[in-house]
Amino acid sequence: MPPAAPAGGACRSRGRRGCALITVTLVSVLLADLPCAGWAAAPITAQGTLPAQEMIPVPSGQTVRLHEVLLDDTPGALWGRFRFIAPQIGHAITPDDSAADMDHLCATVALPYLAQQGLSAARVVISLSDRVVPFGESAPDATQYFEAYRPEDDRCIWEGF
User: Which tens digits make up the pLDDT trace of 114-154?
Assistant: First the structure.
């Protein structure tokens, strides 16, 4: 089964590509308090989604909120998938603006979460969507961006192809 996001991520002028359909088998859905300045995540619900949360500022000036964290070992190693709702993407926020936002979210949300949970992920996937899209379902009207990173030495290394 293919990974949920291609290694290159989505829609960036640096030669990224997009995702149309996401399919993956989840091994676990987990969310705990995140060690981010000024906010904490709520516990995950039985349906695998989060209650409304504080908005997280990012470099583009938009605000996003964490929707869910998925842990996936289908690609043959642990991948942490951090799904954010970013209503302005595809409108006022360009793919290039969102690229810096995803870099920031990897470094300030994903890496601290993995460290706090004692997890060692081979890849971190940051996704932004302009609306909630159930994981693994196609949503042709939704705008979604994906980036994959390799966590290394407390940094997020972009995994281009």
Answer: 999 999 999 999 999 999 999 989 999 999 999 999 999 99
Sign of CA dihedral 50, 53, 57, 63: positive
Question: Do 30 and 44 contact (CB within 8 A), yes or no?
Answer: yes
pTM: 0.70
Q: Which two tokens stand for residue 33?
A: 């308090």
Let me know the angle formed at the C-alpha of 95 by 94 and 98, rounded to the nearest 5 degrees: 90
Helix (H) or strand (E) holding 105: helix 95-105
Q: What's the gap between Cα 86 and its chain centre?
A: 11
By the 8 A CB rule, do 106 and 125 touch?
no
CA-based R_g, the chain, Å: 14
Half-sphere exposure (CA, 13 Å, Cβ side) for 95? Answer: 15
* Whole-number Cα distances in Å, 143 to 10, 69, 94: 11, 19, 11
